[in-house]
Amino acid sequence: MYLEHFGFREEPFRMTPDPMFFFPSKQHRAAIAGLVYLVEFRKGFGILTGGIGTGKTMLTRILLSRLGTDTRTALIVHPPRKRGDLLQAIMDELQITGESNGNYDRIGRIQQYLLEQLQEGQNVVLIIDEAQHLDVNMLEEVRMLSNMETDKEKILQIILVGQEELRATLSTHELRQLSQRIVVNCTLEPFTFNDTCEYIQHRIDVAGLPGVELFDLEALQVIHDFTHGVPRVINSACDRCLLAEYAKRSGRVTVQTAQAVLAEFAQLRVEPKPATPIRKSLIQTSRA
Length: 288
Fold this sequence. Notes:
This protein is an alpha/beta fold and 288 residues long.
């Protein structure tokens, strides 16, 4: 609606994880480098965790785009909840066909496939998103898969992606054998204020207005305090602010607009839990 008014070529703050808008913050660059290292050097097992909306799905898509043609991938977006179904889902993703008789048969067939891929010079990576939903029994199946190796290297690279609860689950005594296998351990934290400012400007640049500053500094502070630096919430907040300025036929987001829009927005959502103490919010409700 406001694209033509501001001169955008694309929606700057859409909610979908479009790799075109990937913001390479320091922590995101470090996570990508670590996960690429894990895959390319066949190190076996890594995890990527972060709060809701911190960019895990986006980072996963960027990782997949950077893997070479010699890497086959199995991406499980919504892991099943029933034991045995996870192994079947992995077989389906890898296009391993035929009937399976129980988990040990599934594991044997996956291992045979991996050995065949190794002989053909192919690497295989398994990425399980929303992995915080995996229970102990299913994570034990992951551990069995992580055992697959030759004398020199792992033949399956596994990356678990999930919320902070995944880290807590892996730290339990029952899963100590799996947690000891973690080679790459990445965590995405909410943005600092500087990151938030750079993130917003990056999306404006990519959307077709390079170098154009559409948000007053005070408005940016209000947005950061309100969103606690969570990218998904930043997108939603900025989108609403631009829409409000479009309605007023204004060309810049002021602190007054940000305060009014986000005060209304606060009534419609549950506040994300901040990872670190933040400054007192600048959002104020004006009284007559």
